[in-house]
Amino acid sequence: MLLYMDTRLLYYADPDLSPEARLLLLQWSRVIGLDKALTCSLLELYHRIGMSAQHAKPALGLLKSHGYLTYETVHRGRGRPVSSHRVSHWFCNRLEKGRLLNTAHRIEIKALCCHASVVRSSSKQKAKNLMNGKERANMLVPATYWLLAVLLAHAEAPGIVRGMSYGRLQVVTGMTRERLKSQLFKLKKLGVIVRHEPGILRSQGKVRMRSVYVLDLAHPLLLGKDSTVLTVVFNSASKLGKVNFISGFYEAAIVVSELKVNYTKILEKIKETWDRDDDYFINSGKRSYFGIKCEKAYDRLLKDAQFLLPPLKLLDPIAADLLKIHSLGMGPILKEHVYSYAIMLLSNHWEDLERKRDGVSNPISAVMTAIQMNCSLLLNVAERGSESRSNGALLIFIYALAHHLAIQLQHILKRIEHRQSVCDFATAAFLLKPSKYLESECWQLKVYFRLSDVLNYLDTTEFKPISVNLSLPKELDLLARE
Hints:
- By secondary structure, the chain is of the alpha+beta class.
- The chain is built from 19 helices and 14 strands.
- A hairpin with a 2-residue loop joins strand 11 (429-437) and strand 12.
């Protein structure tokens, strides 16, 4: 029977504690209880904790030397004496006084700890010297388990971690920077981390955008593939260069911003083609015809980009600021944040989305708070005196993008639910990731359940969203080159 697992250990900061020592304490809390003593041989202790002697022995020594564990020798009649180990009272008191942070991923963390124990005790596990190169590279050590447990504990939405810098991860894992990089690479290689967009640092070391890690909760280390009830494939069979509401919302915002900010210049350039006399245009009729084509190209591009966006009235006040952010190379991290907030809306606020489809006029406070916490430093990039800086219009637009994406995904899921079977998506978690389907580039939305014992599995569904071309039309490209 699984006892209470003290997840406060996953937030505990002590640079002297190794990840092996931290995992040992977490496993102790899960299988024994931090308030219980364990009287047995060292080999049995290692077995109960689910760690090899190679990793557990130095971890145990470290915990003893720093006072986290106390022990005494106990004689049991004949035979060799055994040790009785107990977590020290001062550490238990210190842990109890610490801030209790609730994690939505207690189930996955327990599954991960169980996996560590099962793999360790399995008689089928090969000795290290019998492993081939691939097996050795994929072997999970306590540091790997601990890092993944920490990421799960700090997730703000199912499977999404924001704001964990390398420095913060070092504090709560006890790893050096190089070891942390190595373990993150291993989790990416195993497919547990499906996406990672690093945070952006600018002047004086200030973080303008926090990093984002996206975890696959249906990975065999966690819930397993049986938890996935539906996969929706957004496969665009359109020509190369076209984008849809998932892949192109940020690019569409940049295109609209460029057209809006430079409208006067574009209009003047078009008029120049009407009035200019040179060898390129033979007569005034052709010049007028070209000018009309430019105007139509402008309107068509603006309409196509607008198709992928929420109302443009939200973009107008912040267009110049968005272009400045884009010029600083912050597009990828901003886009990843929008994805994360959209999934947060779907996973945590499904019913709110159904009741409040206007979204921006009455934003969901938990999501808006996350945006303010993670993206507010973007306002420092905005021009002084701009509307986005003075009233947070930029943050509202980020929310609008996420809400717009979430609403469209929800609409598609409800159509699928109506056609195939009853499935309560209000209790589901979601994963959105780029992938390949039938050798084509696509996006996949995976739907999985974390608490339900009775699942209704739905067939993989391919959906072809309308796509648009956001590349510069040849008429406007000619103006730009001139």
